[in-house]
């Protein structure tokens, strides 16, 4: 009789251990879900979006303006060719069709193509006016 109870307890303990494992798996799935939810939150923090259209071999505007000390979403859109942008004096680079939320102090910055894209690469320069 005691042996049966001991066996039952062992089985119960095993079942609990398995259930705990299942619970852990569920918990592992959750952080990736919430991490995915955090990037749209970062995007909504940007007050506005500036789209920089890049083609061969120029950006669509000679000058882009954004407010100072304010998160702004910079989106690079390659309409022709493969280009990137880097902002002078800042550790900011966007390559391909991507976005980044940036916050900059007042100033005039040079935006350059950051990908060697061909003969006109060096003339791909525009201004970013932050004020
Ligand atoms: Cu280039």
TrEMBL record:
Signal peptide range in chain numbering: 1-19
Keyword line: Signal
Record-annotated membrane-spanning stretches: none
Protein name in UniProt: Cytochrome C oxidase subunit II
Organism whose genome encodes this protein: Cohnella suwonensis
